[in-house]
Amino acid sequence: MANQKEKKLIVKQSWCKGCGICVEFCPKNVLALKHEKVEIVDMENCIKCGLCELRCPDYAIYLGGMEDEK
């Protein structure tokens, strides 16, 4: 299992319904809604807290390890 530093924020655009819940819960404004889908707009500011993953009702965003990049 990847440690916290190796984890990366991953968005499954096809699963996103554009509700914006993850955007509202992100404490560092890493996410934004563009064209009715969530996008990562400031990855360098991400603290990998996992609130976006926790709150997404569609499982469209998550913190994954290096093996999830495919």
TrEMBL record:
The keyword rRNA-binding does not apply. InterPro entries: 4Fe4S_Fe-S-bd (IPR017896), 4Fe4S_Fe_S_CS (IPR017900), Fe-S_Ferredoxin (IPR050572). PROSITE patterns: 4FE4S_FER_1, 4FE4S_FER_2. It holds the Pfam family Fer4_7. Residues 7-36, 37-66 form the 4Fe-4S ferredoxin-type domain. Keywords: 4Fe-4S, Iron, Iron-sulfur, Metal-binding. PANTHER family: ADENYLYLSULFATE REDUCTASE, BETA SUBUNIT, BLR5484 PROTEIN. This is 4Fe-4S binding protein. The lineage of its organism: Bacteria, Bacillati, Bacillota, Clostridia, Eubacteriales.
